[in-house]
Here is the input.
Amino acid sequence: MILDNITEEINKANNIVILTHETPDGDAIGSSLALYGALKATGKKADVIIPEYPQVFSFLPWYEEIKKESKEEKYDLAISLDCSDIKRLNGFAEYFENAKTKIVIDHHGSNTMFGDYNYVNPNSPATCEILISVFEYMGIEVNKGIGTCLATGIITDTGGFRHSTVKPETFEFTAELLNKGVNISSIYRRVLQIISMKQFEIRRIALNRMEFLEDGKIAFTYITKQEQEEMNLQTGDHEGIVEFGRDVEGVEVSIFLRELPEGGYKASFRSNEYVNVSDVCLMFGGGGHPKAAGCTILLPLEQAKEKLISQTKMYLK
Ligand code: 5GP
Ligand code: MN
Here is the structure.
């Protein structure tokens, strides 16, 4: 049983590094800090390394203990959370590759199984939900602090319990977290509702130029490098834009492009009913989930748009 291997490796390791995907979201940060808190509670030495992360998660316990880099040459054990592919490990693939033992815990169907032990469940709506069963198996008690981190990942990755990925267990786990004193309503408001003025302004720009193509089945918009620089946007400030397109009646696929500092575009895809956007993104070297996926495309705007849309069109009914 893989959970026996994972438990054994964690028990054996003296220094552990926790890594997650680039442009980390609530599930990435939540799962990393939940595992950090759990390892700390069992007396283990661990580092969480995340070079850039959104300020919105600063209410999470242990947030201050996140490291931007590490002086450690080699870890006994590296644990990658919520990351489907070694290329997405925040530019920190070497910490992972250099570690004596490598564990992957994730819920992406497109996971490439890049660890020695891969605990991947694509049916789980969030990596944080998978961690609940890992902690249970290992006999680690989920206290209010760990629970706050776990609830954050579950709430963000399910869009506030709205996605079709939600299972009865999702509510059962959340009910348990409520019982432990985790403030679900406050987390929900912080991570899904409140936006900064900057976020509001960038949404205004993106929505203003949103186009509806293919009889309104595709919504498309973008933001430029210049706009992001002028507004001094930080990691995560663009979150939420792609969902606006998805929520318009008749839209099946929403596409949002964000120009990258080094050139090219990061594409975010969302779908409603039947298009598997992970398949679309795989064609461009990306991936994700059936209804939420992404990829990087190194082309000028018009060409990127044309390529992504003509690929998406093939999946429309
Ligand atoms: P988002 O649009 O929120 O950045 O990403 C949506 C989902 O797609 C997330 O689960 C994310 O991990 C995945 N994803 C986004 N970009 C990429 C990519 O370039 N490669 C892979 N494999 N997955 C991605
Ligand atoms: Mn996730």
